[in-house]
Design goal:
mainly alpha, about 120 residues
Length: about 120
């Protein structure tokens, strides 16, 4: 190496290393950082607002569905009570008719046991 290059190298290595701050670059970087954070906050705020709107519309939808199901349950309970009452009435009618059948069968056996006069005349 030449003497001049050696002196230049020594001068560079002998000087203390300093970072020079550029206030304009720092200000611009801070401004960009603040803008990014504000934008990110705005995006998150809008998403949160949209989620709250969706939740409230979902809540209204669930309330309507709940009301419809409650009404359907009321109709089904009324139908069930009507069916129970009908079944009870039909059961009592079956019991009455069964008793009437037993009574008529007893009368028929009595008539057959007495021997009907028509049946006696018809026989040769």
């Amino acid at each position: 190496m030449t003497a001049r290059a050696v002196r230049s190298t020594q001068r560079l290595t002998a000087a203390p290393f300093e970072l020079v701050s550029n206030r304009r670059a720092q200000s611009a970087l801070r401004l960009v950082l603040v803008c990014v954070l504000v934008g990110l906050g705005a995006v998150l705020g809008l998403r949160l607002y949209a989620d709250v709107g969706d939740a409230s519309s979902n809540g209204l939808l669930l309330e309507r569905r709940n009301a419809a199901l409650t009404e359907e349950i009321a109709h089904l309970r009324a139908d069930l009570e009507f069916e129970r009452a009908t079944r009870s009435a039909l059961d009592s009618q079956v019991l009455e008719l069964t008793a009437r059948i037993a009574e008529l069968e007893a009368q028929l056996r009595f008539v057959h046991a007495q021997g009907s006069p028509r049946a006696a005349r018809a026989q040769p």
